[in-house]
Amino acid sequence: MRRAARVDSNQAEIVEAFRSLGCDVLHTHQLGQGAPDLFVAFSGIWLAIEVKTQHGKLTEAQETLYEGLKTRPRIVRNVEEVKATVDTLKRWHRCIQGGK
Question: What is the pLDDT of residues 47-98, one digit of tens each?
Fold first, then answer.
């Protein structure tokens, strides 16, 4: 039987920061097997997010899952990185809409 998924101590703060900046947040940490902690959406653009504490590292299951992929979830450790991530999502949205 699988144990309950561990949640990083800063996850609630990170989720609240994403939501306060207009993002939708889907919790996926409970899936286990290396799945990202969250999927975050801004204006229809979804991004996989792995929440880590300041010195946290990817688990063995995460490394195994991501080794065959061309990309990895974005690692977010604090509110400043949340803001940078949302700024990136906003830029992507502008590009998709034909702006710069």
Answer: 999 999 999 999 999 999 898 888 899 999 999 999 999 999 999 999 998 8
Which band of pLDDT confidence, cut at 50, 70 and 90, is reported for residue 1? Answer: very low
Domain of 84 in residue numbering reads as: 11-96
Structure tokens, 37: 């902690």
| Total structural domains within the chain | 1
Residue-wise over 38-75: b if at least 16 C-beta within 10 A, else e? bbbebeeeebbbbbbeeeeebeeebeebbeeeeeebbb
Within-domain flag for 4: no
